[in-house]
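Reopening this ticket.

The earlier resolution said the output was attached, but the attachment link was broken on my side. Pasting everything inline this time so it's all in one place.
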Amino acid sequence: MLRALRDGARVDDVMGGYYLVRPVLRYIAQSRLREMFTAAALLLVIGIALAMQSLGLPPALGTFLAGVVLAESEYRHELESNIEPFKGLLLGLFFISVGASIDFDLLRRYPEVIAAIVVALVLIKLAVLLAVGRVFRLPSRDNVLFSLALAQGGEFAFVLSALATQSGVMDANISNPLVLCVAVSMLLTPVLMLINDKWVQPRLAPDMAAGAADVIDEHDNPVIILGFGRFGQLVGRLLHANGVGTTVLDHDASRIGFLKKFGFKVFYGDAGRPELLHAAGAGQAKLLVIAIDDEEKALHIAEHARQHYPHLKILARAISRFHAYELIQRDVPHVYREMFGSALDLGEEALRLLGFRAYQASRAARTFKRHDVAARRELAALKHDESLYMSRAKQLREELEALIRKDDHDLLELQDQAWDVAPPQTRQNEEPPPRNG
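Inline output:
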């Protein structure tokens, strides 16, 4: 085994994975019994864990090695999908057992020592990860995110500490504080992510100063677009193609740098700042397009624009149906759910592929759209009363089905009177009508 490790053999070669596990999995896969495949994978994991325990090693180390063996198999994706239902349960059991073994009384007795160890762990690991990111030439923003996300201790530390304690390498008086420090460092991860989002990333944003709100030099465009992501770009491109001037603002500096390569002029800034909206020319503009993906900020902007710029016609992107209700209640007349149009286009095409004629599918889509827009405004006033909302929503759905059936019936009568509805292939052999004269 030592020679195999020295020669660089893989873990599954050493553990017999290549010569034993793969043929067994291949034989089971040929049976095409999914339950048998899942049972075999679980049996392999439990077997290796018990084998490790019989050797005096932690079972967790055995399950880790079993995972390495299975990961090198060509059936790894099938195994992942089969074991997926057990993942949450087993992870929960693992962390419950870890949590039960942590001596939190140490935190009460030695808070300064625990805090110092946690800070040292996070800072040392952060420094190492930042250096690794520089070696692999990660951009500054990505490098910081990568380092902060992994700066805490890992779950495998629990396995190693248990192994060291059972093997007599480490005394319990040392391993218990270390386990506690790793757990506390993991609890700090959300705090580190919050610090990264609120303070670190904005300071690292490239070209931030060049696109600040105080240097907006376009004030006379008739349209202001707030947010130039996937939604706002489509709106902006359509307006530009028709010669309509727009002032575009976005808060994602990396996106702005990317769009500038394609010739788009986008200003950096937080669209929720009142002075930024004023600097963009809201006093002279005709339309305000709110295309940002932050629901709360979109509502705040709509309220501010309604109050201070009543002449502006507001067109707002709605992330969801309930977001649309909130915008409607703030007197935003033009609300567009971001996936509504594309979903209708797909549904219309689905009707065509199912045999509906093009005009039937198109009329059905238009009828659905008109009815949904009207229903949306009616349901917006009922969203706080769940029982009344659900009752009226069911009634509106029945009304829509009746409306489409009536529309289809009217179309059939019209076809019988004046339309030639025979398929094109049945008309090929018909004689042409006689010419006048």
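Reporter confirms the inline version is readable. Residues 1-15, 207-214, 416-437 have pLDDT under 50 and may be disordered. The radius of gyration is 32 Å.
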